[in-house]
Amino acid sequence: MGRDGLRSRTLNNMTLSTVLRLSTNQLLHKGHPRLMPIPQHGNRANITLLIFLILFGLALTGCNAGKNLGSQDKGWSPVVAADGMVYVGSVSGKVLALKDDGRSVQVMWSFPQNEDDSIGGVYNPPVVGPDLLYVSALNGTLYALDKRTGQLDGVGWSVIVGNPDDPSSLVSGAALSPDKSTVVVGSSDGNLYAYDARTGMLRSGYPFESPEDMIWSTPVIDRGVIYFGSHDNNIYAVDLASGTEKWRRETGGAVIASPLVFKNRIIVGSFDRKLYVLSEENGVPLWGDESPFPGMQTFSKGNNWFWAGAVADNSTVYAANMDGNIYAIDIEGNLRWKQQLDAPIASTPVVMPTGLVVATKKGEVKRLDLSNGTVNGLPRLTSEVRAPLSITSTVNSSSIDFSQEDQSDSVFIGTQDGLIYRLRVNSNQNQSHLWCFDSKEQIQLANSECSAFKE
Questions:
Q1: How far apart are the two ends of the chain, measured CA to CA in Å?
Q2: Contact 135, 129 (CB under 8 A)
Q3: How many CB atoms lie within 10 A of CB 2?
Q4: What string of H, E and C letters represents the secondary structure of the chain?
Q5: Burial of 3 per CB tally in 10 Å (0-12, 13-18, 19+)
Q6: What's the domain count of the chain?
Q7: How far apart are CA 156 and CA 35, in angstroms?
Q8: Which of 103, 142, 242, 455 could lock onto 378 through a cystine, CB 3.0 to 4.6 A?
Q9: What angle, rounded to 10 degrees, do the helices at 3-12 and 44-61 form?
Q10: Nearest Cα to Cα of residue 399 among 146, 195, 197
Q11: Beta carbons within 8 Å of 296's beta carbon, 6+ residues apart
C-alpha cells in the first residue's frame, strides 16, 4: 500500500481496529549485503503517521494511557551495557559507544562520524555480539558495527532490509542467535529477515513473509526457534534454520511487545489487554479462557495494552501494563500481587537481585520488592522513558579487551530528552545516580546539572 493509499484508507476509516491493521508496503528483496550509504529516511513518513494514528485511535476509545506514546520518529534513546561499555541509539540519529568507569563516561566512538549523517533513530537497544554491534534503524538499515571502532570497514557490514528503493522502517530490535551465527529482525514491511551474523548475507529460506502486517515486536530466539508478534494480531514461531512456520496463535489485538521465554512457555501481551502464555512446542494456551488445563485460568487481563515485554525471575512473571500496573503472576497463572504506579508503562522493566526496577512514561524510576510489590526509592527523571531498561551482560570476545568495570549493581536508562543514566540499585540504599550523559551534545553532565532527583 502506497503512502497516498494509506492516508486515504486512514481518513476514511478512523477506528482503532482499522488503525491497528494498517500495513506498509510488503516488499521482497533478496539481495547481497554491501557497505551501504546511509539512507536518511526510509519509510519514516509511514511510521510517523501510523504511530500517530494508533494514538488517535486510543483517544477515540478513551484509552488515554497511551497518549503521545511514540508520536515522534527519532527513536527512544535505547541503551545496552556490556563489558564495561555502554552503547546508545541516540535521538540525534547516532550510535554512541561510551567507556564507563563507574563515575564517569567518555565517548569512544560515534557512528556515523559525519555530523550531517543520521541513521534516523533507534527504538530498541543495540545487540552486542563478540565483535560486532547490531543496530536496527528507522532508515530501514541493519548495521553491524565494529565494536572497537564503530565503523563498517573491516569486520562490519550493513544491509538495507527489504526493498532498497523504498525501505521500510525498522522499529523491531535485532536478535542474535545463541551461537552468534545469525541475526534476525522484523520489518515494517511485514517480513522477518535473517542474516549471517558475520557477513550480512541473507539466510536461505528468508524473508519469512506470512505476517500480514507490520512487525514491531523484537524477536527472541530459543532452541532454534524465533518467536515474535505482529500487527496482524498473531504470535509466530518460526524455525530458525529453514525459515518455515512452526505455529501461530491469534490474539485479539496487535502484538508489539517482545516475547519472554520462561519455563517452556512463550509469554507476551497483546493490545487486546490479555497476557498470552503459550506452550513453546505448539502454541497451545496454558493460561486464560482457552487453556485446556484446569486451575490455570486465574489471571485474565490488564486494564489496558501490554506494550512492554514481560520479565521473570525463577518463579514469577512480571508484566507491565499501560494501565500503570505491574502484575506479578506465578507459574500456574495466579496473581500474586499487583502494584499501581500512577502512570502508563511502555518501558520493559528489569529483574535484579534487589528487586524489580520499573520506569514509567512520566520518568519515575521505582524499585519493587519481588515478594510483595512494595515500592522502594522514587527517583524521577525530567523526561519520559519509553525504551527498555538495561542491566549489564557479559559477552565473550577473543579479539577485544574492554575495561571490565563492574556494572552489575546498576540499571541503565535512556530518556526522550536524550539523557542516559546509570543508577545504582542495591539492598542497602535507594537508587542513587552515578552519572548522566547527554547523548545529543555527547557530554557528561555534572551532578548539579543532572535531572535525576528523589521525591
A1: 49
A2: no
A3: 11
A4: CCHHHHHHHHHHCCCHHHHHCCCCCCCCCCCCCCCCCCCCCCCHHHHHHHHHHHHHHHHHHCCHHHCCCCCCCCCCCCEEEECCEEEEECCCCCEEEEEECCCCEEEEEEECCCCCCCCCCCCCCCEECCCEEEEECCCCEEEEEECCCCCCCCCCEEEECCCCCCCCCCCCCCEECCCCCEEEEECCCCCEEEEECCCCCECCCCCECCCCCCCCCCCEEECCEEEEECCCCEEEEEECCCCCEEEEEECCCCCCCCCEEECCEEEEECCCCEEEEEECCCCCECCCCCCCCCCCCCCCECCCCCCCCCEECCCEEEEECCCCEEEEEECCCCEEEEEECCCCCCCCCEEECCEEEEECCCCEEEEECCCCCCEECCEECCCCCCCCCECCECCCCCCCCCCCCCCCCEEEEECCCCEEEEEEEECCEEEEEEEEEECCCCEECCCCCCCCEEC
A5: middle
A6: 1
A7: 8
A8: 455
A9: 10
A10: 146
A11: 286, 287, 332, 333
Model confidence at 29, pLDDT cuts 50, 70, 90, reads very low
Give the CATH number, domain containing residue 75. 2.130.10.10
Burial of 315 (0-12, 13-18, 19+ CB in 10 A): exposed
pLDDT score of 382: 74
User: What is the C-alpha to C-alpha distance for residues 409 and 244, in angstroms, rounded to an integer?
Assistant: 41
Quote the cell numbers at residue 33: 549485503
Block residue for cell numbers 565494536: 147
pLDDT value, residue 43: 56
In this structure, what C-alpha cell is assigned to residue 266? 512463550
Separation CA 269–CA 278 (nearest Å)? 11
Rg of the chain in Å (alpha carbons): 20
Cα–Cα distance measured from residue 272 to residue 22, given in angstroms and rounded to the nearest whole number: 16
| Cβ atoms of 82 and 394 closer than 8 Å | yes
Take residue 403 and report the three cell numbers written for it.
Answer: 575495561
Condensed to tens digits (0 to 9), the pLDDT of residues 99-119 reads 998 888 999 999 999 988 999
pLDDT tens for 255-305 read 999 999 999 999 999 999 999 999 999 999 987 767 776 656 667 789 999
pLDDT at 16 over 80: no
Return the pLDDT at 59: 36
Per-residue pLDDT tens over the stretch 388-438: 999 987 655 544 444 456 788 899 999 999 999 999 887 665 567 789 999
One-letter identity of residue 40: Q
